[in-house]
Every structure is written in structure tokens, then in C-alpha cells.
Design brief:
Elements (H helix, E strand, L loop, with lengths): L18 E2 L9 E2 L8 E7 L6 E7 L2 H11 L6 H11 L5 E8 L2 H14 L18 H14 L2 H19 L3 H16 L2 H14 L5
Antiparallel strand pairs: 1-2, 3-4, 3-5
Length: about 210
């Protein structure tokens, strides 16, 4: 079990900072060389309340990445998604801790995964980190076909329509309206499938797409 103080996901140091946050007892203080390249966060997803590390990944925007994990857990069938769904059944969510900011994320991510596994962390990572793919192209294609077959066509059509409207508003320069619509889209994505289908059907009927 690895424990550490919680750091704010989006607290990003400057590229020239000398030190990055440490996670005890796994990490020691680490110097980050000055660089003009954009720093990337290496983060850990932990069990709520215990700081037990279950997944390590990288993110340009940690806060947005955490939201993506929660969204993906609703539709993907990976070890980390199954774990998040299990937490959700207990009205809990994973917590995110920043392990390091780096301009060599492939090296740092592989190192963090290796170190945490060495001390006995039961990580849910499928790959060893860096640029290593989680699975072959054939497996990813098969997973994509499986996901497409499981989609609700009414919900999927509604999501595609909203996505298209957001892009059109941005193309026209109506960024405020696009942001408002994106906020509605985020709320919609957090609903259960039953509520999503009800809303999609009602709007489709009003527009004459459904009888």
C-alpha cells in the first residue's frame, strides 16, 4: 500500500522548477531540468480514503483526465473502468494524486509503474507505460466494433447531433453559446442510460425524427 498527501490535480510548476512533488514512501525528491517543452503530469488514481494506488497514467490536464476516466467507466470494459464502476456502486469515486511533472513522460511513467509494482501495489495498468500500446491493432478494432454494437442508436444520434452543433457554433465564433451547450452535454453524459434515452427520444419527437 502506498500512501501520500493529496496534491491539487492542476497545480502545475513552471518548466524551470527545481523540484517536483514527492510521494512517500515510493518517491524521493526529484529534480526537473529546465526545459522549454511543456510539462506533463504523471498521476495516480487511488482508493478513496486510503491512498492505495490502483492506476498510474499521464495527463496534460489532470482535472480533465480525471473526468475522462469517470466518463469512460460508463462504456468501456477495462480493469480500471471496472474498478471505477465498483466504487460508484458504493457512492465513491477514485482520487487523483500528482506524482510528478516532467518533460519526459514516457520515461517517468514507466519508472513510476515499475516502482509501485515493486512495492506491491496492485496496479490496474494493462501496459507498462510510455508509448507501449495496451493491445494490438486487431484487438483494439474488435473492441471498437463491440462498443459500437452496444450503443443505443437513439442516444448515439443525439450525442452526435449535439457534438456537431458545438463544432458549428465554434466555427461561427459563438464560443459562449458553444460552452453553454458543452456544459449541457457534460450534464447529459452523467445521466443514466434510461434518462439519456428519455431526453433523446423527447427531443427527437419534437423535431419529427421519431413518431
Amino acid at each position: 500500500m502506498a500512501q501520500a498527501p493529496k496534491n491539487s490535480p492542476n497545480k502545475r510548476p513552471q518548466a524551470g522548477a527545481n523540484k517536483t512533488p514527492a510521494r512517500k514512501p515510493v518517491l524521493v525528491r526529484k529534480r526537473v531540468a529546465a526545459s522549454s517543452r511543456k510539462l506533463v503530469a504523471i498521476y495516480a488514481l487511488t482508493e478513496p480514503g486510503t491512498d492505495t494506488v490502483r492506476y498510474i497514467g499521464k495527463a496534460n490536464n489532470p482535472e480533465a483526465r480525471l473526468k475522462t476516466h469517470l466518463r469512460d467507466a460508463r462504456r468501456r470494459d477495462t480493469p480500471v473502468c471496472r474498478w471505477i464502476r465498483k466504487l460508484a456502486k458504493s457512492n465513491a469515486l477514485p482520487e487523483m494524486t500528482i506524482l510528478a511533472w516532467t518533460d519526459e513522460w514516457q520515461v517517468e511513467e514507466r519508472k513510476q509503474i515499475s516502482q509501485h509494482r515493486a512495492i506491491g501495489c496492485r496496479l490496474l495498468n494493462v501496459a507498462e507505460g510510455g508509448d507501449e500500446p495496451e493491445c494490438s491493432y486487431e484487438t483494439r478494432a474488435a473492441n471498437g466494433r463491440k462498443a459500437a454494437a452496444s450503443r443505443d442508436p437513439v442516444i448515439w444520434a443525439y450525442k452526435r447531433k449535439i457534438g456537431g452543433l458545438i463544432k458549428e457554433l465554434e466555427r461561427q465564433g459563438s464560443y459562449i453559446h458553444a460552452d453553454k451547450l458543452r456544459a449541457c452535454q457534460s450534464f447529459y453524459n452523467c445521466l443514466g442510460k434510461g434518462a439519456q434515452r428519455f431526453i433523446a427520444e423527447e427531443l427527437a419527437r419534437r423535431e419529427g425524427d421519431l413518431p
